[in-house]
Write a structure and sequence with these properties.
Elements (H helix, E strand, L loop, with lengths): L1 E5 L11 H14 L3 E7 L7 E4 L2 E6 L9 H23 L4 E5 L4 H11 L3 E4 L4 H5 L5 H16 L2 E4 L2 H11 L6 E3 L16 H4 L8 E6 L8 H14 L3 E6 L5 H10 L6 E5 L3 H10 L2 E4 L8 H8 L4 E4 L2 H6 L7 E3 L4 H13 L1 H18 L2 H56 L3
Parallel strand pairs: 1-2, 1-5, 2-4, 5-6, 6-7, 7-8, 9-10, 9-12, 10-11, 12-13, 13-14
Antiparallel strand pairs: 3-4
Helix pairs in contact: 1-15, 2-3, 3-5, 8-13
């Protein structure tokens, strides 16, 4: 099967979780014998084309015209994606399916679908309404409407959790059967051969301190502010603890100020950006990993922590709520509730048997349910559904057109007969 992936991020450009999902899914589909082409944005000095272990990756620049805002920038990007994808199709032939990832590539996906009559599958990784707890301004409304348009134009829609299925069904009014739940996956070899590096660990905490780790973007919906608010209670119950916040984002200064105001800045360490190798080492150095999101469609970072063998605390929202079973594969806390977060963390710090049990169970669950072999198979099945549905629609349209032409001919014939009879009657007695 020839597959065209449209995405605004692909390694080495990593903005959020989409890049890793597209990368790992594409690699797995290649192993299964499929032909995968990715069209994405060119960032920095990355090559315009590369063969990424079988995945053909084409990168496009934005127009040199300076856009007025982010929406204009995205539109310009879509124009160049259309041009590059059309060039590939004209040279190498049609794709069997287009797979669009989120609203940022929606206009390119729609244009290519109609221009070349190719089935369209889309993955909605998150929604603007979910990220912002509703739609509050014109920019958010535009993004929300574009998300709706993409789901409307798609033959099949993929989401990564049952939460997201219910969310977009209610938000966009989609038929339930059109939405396919396929979770994100993780490379099960990510932590093979990686052990705790004490020299690396001492850069962030002393040997006697337990590391409480947050890994991810520093944005409001990730709930880091509630985790920082939980630290005074945690330190009161377990003084030899330190919160390591790994990642970057727009809330960095605000979060640092919050820690300072609480008088715990010496117990909160902001690492900034970590590369892939540093991320692996950090997970192995952590004693508890915490993901206190207030909105989370899935939560791939939680899977990483679970695979690394780190006892994990998550909030009871979205996809996180489905990944973790409280007291079995991790601990849950009430979203936005710092006391609840503190209680779950303290339970793991004090109860070593509990921590060992949930980490063991969590690793087994990740290996069983979130491996790319199964996910690629489910995605391929969704592609097949879209292709079959499109073929059925084409056939139905053809039959309808043929029936319409037959009806038109029959009507014309009836009209001719009526006119002939009228003529004969008129001239019968002439």
């Amino acid at each position: 099967m020839k597959i065209l992936m449209l995405t605004w991020e692909y390694p080495p450009r990593i903005v959020g979780g989409i890049a890793r999902v597209v990368h790992d899914l594409s690699k797995r589909l290649i192993k299964d014998g499929h032909d995968v082409t990715v069209v994405t944005y060119r960032d920095g000095d990355t090559p315009y084309f590369e063969n990424d272990k079988g995945v053909k990756v084409y990168r496009v620049d934005n127009y040199m015209i300076r856009p007025n805002n982010f929406i204009d920038w995205i539109m310009q990007l879509n124009f160049n994606m259309i041009a590059k994808s059309s060039e590939i199709i004209e040279k190498e032939g049609k794709f069997d399916v287009i797979h669009a990832h989120d609203w940022l590539v929606a206009n390119a996906a729609k244009a290519l679908k109609h221009a070349y009559d190719i089935p369209l599958v889309s993955t909605i990784h998150a929604t603007e309404s979910g990220r912002n707890s509703g739609i509050h301004d014109d920019t958010q409304r535009y993004i929300n409407d574009t998300e709706w348009m993409l789901t409307y134009e798609s033959t099949e829609v993929i989401v990564n959790s049952n939460f997201m299925k219910g969310h977009i069904q209610g938000l966009f009014g989609l038929p339930f059967e059109k939405i396919n739940v396929i979770p994100n996956g993780i490379n099960l070899t990510n932590f093979n051969g990686i052990e705790r590096d004490y020299e690396f660990r001492r850069q962030y905490a002393s040997d006697n301190e337990k590391i409480i780790l947050y890994m991810g973007r520093l944005v409001y919906e990730k709930g880091i502010q509630h985790l920082i608010s939980a630290m005074p209670k945690i330190l009161n119950g377990y003084n030899d603890a330190k919160l390591i916040i790994a990642g970057k984002g727009g809330m960095t200064d605000e979060l640092k100020a919050q820690a300072e105001a609480l008088g715990i800045s010496n117990k909160v360490y902001f690492t900034g950006y970590l590369n892939a190798k540093q991320v692996q080492k950090m997970y192995k150095c952590a004693d508890v990993a915490v993901f206190p999101s207030t909105y989370e469609p899935f939560g791939i970072v939680a899977l990483e922590a679970m695979l690394a063998g780190v006892p994990t605390v998550v909030s009871d929202v979205g996809g996180l709520d489905e990944i973790v079973e409280h007291g079995v594969t991790g601990m849950k806390s009430y979203a936005g509730n710092s006391n609840s977060i503190a209680d779950s963390i303290l339970a793991l710090l004090y109860d070593h048997q509990l921590a060992a049990k949930v980490s063991k169970n969590a690793k087994a669950k990740v290996k069983e349910l979130y491996n790319w072999n199964k996910i690629a198979q489910d995605t391929h099945f969704t592609y097949q559904k879209a292709i079959c549905q499109t073929m059925a629609e084409r056939q139905a349209n053809q039959i309808a057109q043929e029936n319409a032409e037959k009806a038109k001919k029959a009507k014309n014939t009836d009209s001719e007969i009526t006119n002939l009879l009228a003529f004969k009657k008129k001239h019968a007695y002439a």
